[in-house]
Design brief:
The protein is of the alpha/beta class and 295 residues long. The strands form two sheets. It has a five-stranded parallel β-sheet. A two-stranded antiparallel ribbon has the order 6-7. The chain has one domain. Helix content is 49%, strand content 9%. Helix 4 packs parallel to helix 9. The longest helix is centred in the first third of the chain and has 26 residues.
């Protein structure tokens, strides 16, 4: 009996050790989250840019503007709102609103591994406790692939010292890229809960909202989408009725040479757009809080 217990203990310890090693290297595949946690803890940026890949690749934060890009691909409004709660009101927030911002939560997005990274780096905000583990949330095959990447090629961070993602290249088929993005972004209807999160975020002082530039091929596809129309309508209402600082750049007149694909800028477009955005979105308009609280 004692021998059986000893063997069972050794077997369990071996399995647990392998599990921990796999989890460790899977978490090292992408280290952008830990890098951004360090900046969040320092709280020494004058302004933070928050949002999805549209601002991660679309806005160029730098020392001269006193900004840091706290965006990452597929960042949800849940994550944006949590980060906003961690910084003092004196820090200006520039919040990018994407076509899927009001329809995708941490609990229903496809990229579950991003939940694990956020939960393990910042705090647990998804409802599924399994999303502290890559193996439990995604299964073995994907996790092993991530662990292999983490073991073989962790390397330096993909982001620069100001948190920016930069793309040098350009796709050849904007129409195909637009169709693929449209299919990804409009999977489910808008959530009332995310609408309330956006309104709550708009009550924060020193907070500006903007929509990013899109290529005309993508603009054409989303122009009549109810989700996007409702999102723009809400932002327009907050700006018009409650003095919330908001700028709509989705139809910004930008040549093809400034786009990486149909819904992301490349480094040339990023540089041009950032000059416009940072000049117009950093005013500190104070929203009508009493009126907002009645909504």
């Amino acid at each position: 009996m004692r021998l059986l217990i000893l063997k069972s203990t050794l077997w369990a310890f071996s399995c647990l050790s392998i599990w921990l090693v796999i989890e460790y290297y899977a978490g090292k595949e992408i280290n952008d989250y830990r890098r951004k946690l360090e900046i969040l803890n320092r709280r020494n940026a004058g302004a933070l840019i928050l949002g999805s890949s549209h601002s991660f690749y679309g806005v160029l934060a730098d020392e001269s503007s006193g900004t840091y890009n706290m965006s990452w691909s597929s960042q949800t409004l849940d994550e944006t709102g949590w980060i906003a709660e961690q910084v003092p009101d004196s820090i200006h927030l520039l919040v990018c609103i994407s076509p899927f911002s009001l329809s995708t939560t941490v609990d229903d997005r496809v990229e579950r591994w991003r939940n694990v990274l956020f939960n393990r780096t910042f705090t647990h905000i998804s409802s599924d406790f399994h999303e502290l583990s890559f193996l439990l949330s995604m299964g073995g095959r994907k996790t092993l692939r991530m662990a292999k990447n983490g073991f073989n090629g962790v390397g330096p961070s993909r982001i620069d010292e100001y948190g920016n993602g930069i793309r040098d290249s350009q796709v050849k088929d904007f129409k195909g890229s637009a169709q693929a993005a449209h299919k990804r972004h409009f999977v489910r209807p808008n959530h009332d809960g995310l609408k309330r999160k956006l309104i709550r975020l708009s009550r924060r002082p020193n907070t500006s909202f903007f929509t990013p530039p899109f290529h005309r091929s993508y603009q054409t596809l989303i122009a009549n989408e109810p989700n996007w129309s409702a999102t723009l309508s809400l932002l327009d209402s907050l700006s018009r009725n409650y003095q919330v600082n908001y700028s709509n750049y989705s139809g910004w007149d930008t040549p093809d040479s400034c786009f990486y694909d149909a819904d992301h800028l490349n480094k040339h477009g990023q540089r041009q757009f950032s000059r416009t955005l940072l000049n117009t979105c950093t005013s500190t308009n104070t929203p009508d809080l009493d009126a907002l609280q009645q909504r």
